[in-house]
Known about the structure:
This protein is of the alpha/beta class. Helix content is 39%, strand content 18%.
Amino acid sequence: MATATRTPVPTPTETATGTPEEVATTCSLGTGLRRETVDLLLTYREHPGLVMSANPTLAEEVFPEFEGWIRVMGAPSIEMLEQRALRAEETGMVYEGLGYGLETSETTPEEEWQDLVGATANARTVVDQYGKLLVMAPGLRLMSQNEDAYAPMAEKTDIWIFQTQRLQRQPPGPAYREDVARIVNEIRAAHPDIVIWAQITMPPDRAPDAEEWVAYHDAISDLVDGTYIGVYIWDRVPENEILAAMETIFETICESEQ
Length: 258
């Protein structure tokens, strides 16, 4: 299968009217906002990327520092998505998108992950009500069992965060790139202009390796609009090791994109 190529494009952000506009970016990196990552992200706030938080209190405190970024409030269910949006409206928090993380877990109701297209349509309704971007971040295992849903879900979506961690079972290189390109093509089949961020994870079976992460990034960066550092090892790896790897990634990628 031929691999799709993607010319880097400006990242959409949100205007006051809820209409995406183009904003110049110098470092197409994203990651999750946690207390542990605040200082690191502030160091690179002049290099706009994407930052997502599932913690409304932290987002209210820190999001104002990231003007020009795509600031996303994340939630694993429609009910929580509505709660996040309502709270943000009441507090006057400035942000660009609502992120819907469909997963086959206790946090996502079964009726939602059993009807992916319908759930995405419901998320679109919520997002439109509040004038924000819809950011979809479904689990890759769930989508691998429902690949026919990529196109109709993407039609309703502004930004797709594509989780690649299950593909990282193979080393960075042609096979990994081919697998990513195939799924990117499926996402773009019905929405060629959708913005796609690839989440590259620090694998849980080994110490954080910035060099390996950058190699995965380099293998696919021309296929997508940005890359997102996925970290799910905070409870098993010393914080300083994770932050050191993340800092190296930011330094390497941001300097290379200048």
